[in-house]
């Protein structure tokens, strides 16, 4: 069966995540031990006990989500799970995809995402920020609303599906923009579990710092094609992969286009490798797709059986 692997970004973290895997599986403990040693914090204990405020801090959330996806992928390979035709990660998830495609070492990815999370959190030290999902409003209308803010304090952070677009930026301006969206016909608006202005112009200083870190990181050609967030391409060249990772920090995640690209390659099964089913839920209205996830051991084994069965 042809399928694509999808890796989630920040916002899927929660207390007691991965608990169904942890009782018997050393792969998860070993992966988190490696990450914890690098971060200087017991990340596995943090995921199970909290506090939630610390889990939600980007400095910890980003390595936690990366480690979760890497551990699930290792578990997939342990059970002889098939290789996908494509990989793609939503924002932070792009690092998970690059590790699992053998383009980037896990230790290097940990280094990048820890600093990435730390620098992103620093943006909020003297600034209240907000991230909201706009449901049921045309992208062009939302774009015009964002353009009203002269200092570019509100941006389209992600186009997740035909029906869901994420905006982020200064808390006050995002609130005003969301009210404007409601007046213009948005069906529903809800808060995203983030307090940093992801994929907005406010993140440009972070991009500069990540560019500096990436200079000393080796990235190889992915063994499985990885579709990036910035231009919806499968880059093979280290320089181009790095450029995309830098640019994605302050530009829109083109998730809907990534899913469309995968479908254009006659791949209609999506497997989410992460501790939640956020990306799976985005596909639920697409009747052409079979969407599976690995958020606990039960769903993992179901997905393994479906994908590994002979056609």
Automatic annotation (TrEMBL):
Keywords, alphabetical: Acyltransferase, Transferase
InterPro entries: Ac_transferase_dom_sf, Acyl_transferase_dom, Acyl_Trfase/lysoPLipase, Mal-CoA-ACP_Trans/PKS_FabD, Malonyl_CoA-ACP_transAc, Malonyl_CoA-ACP_transAc_FabD, Malonyl_transacylase_ACP-bd
Catalytic activity: holo-[ACP] + malonyl-CoA = malonyl-[ACP] + CoA
Alphabetized Gene3D superfamilies for the sequence: Malonyl-CoA ACP transacylase, ACP-binding, Malonyl-Coenzyme A Acyl Carrier Protein, domain 2
Active site per the UniProt annotation: 91, 199
One GO cellular component term noted in the UniProt record for this chain: cytosol
EC number: 2.3.1.39
Protein family per UniProt: Belongs to the fabD family.
PANTHER family: MALONYL-COA-ACYL CARRIER PROTEIN TRANSACYLASE, MITOCHONDRIAL
Name this polypeptide is given: Malonyl CoA-acyl carrier protein transacylase
Gene: fabD
